[in-house]
Structure formats: structure tokens, C-alpha cells
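Continuing the series of single-chain predictions for the mutant panel. This is the parent chain; the variants come on the following pages.
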Amino acid sequence: MRATYEYVRFAAGLVDTQGQMGTLYLQIANAARGSGARFLAARDLCSSIAVLPTHDDLRNRRDECVRVLDAQRSRLAAVAADGRSVSEWLDAPRTC
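Parent structure:
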């Protein structure tokens, strides 16, 4: 989805004046719809990692990764509903 958006980002400003952005946003939304399951699988895998009680730093890191994945999945759902929010999704933090 990122590659598609980056590829057309420059042209998007030109196309918008011709009223063609609706088709582009629809394609972006369709791509986002197919990505939700991968985020859920990554989140589930991350949250299932067991950390020994003596490793607070690792447990905090795992929990932060789960929070980031939850936030990204929520933003992705917004993109799937309306492709216009794609720039917000692309600019959101991704690391944990």
C-alpha cells in the first residue's frame, strides 16, 4: 500500500484537479482491506511472547509493540473505510 501511494503521491496533486482522486482513494482502501489480517497476526504473535518476570524492560518493549500494532491496525481500518486517510496512516509511528 505504501509503495502504491508513494508512486502516485506526486501525480495525485495533478489528478485531483481533474476529479480523479476518488478512484485512487478507492484503490488504496481496497489494498488496506487486505492488510488487516496481517496486522492482527503480528499483534497476536507479539502479545503471545512470554517474558520472565525479571525482565521488565523486555515486557515493556513487548507491550509497547502491541500498543503500536493496535494503533496501526485502527488507523488501517480507517484507511480501509476511506482511502483519503492514507497519509495519516503512513506518517504514524511504526517502531516499538
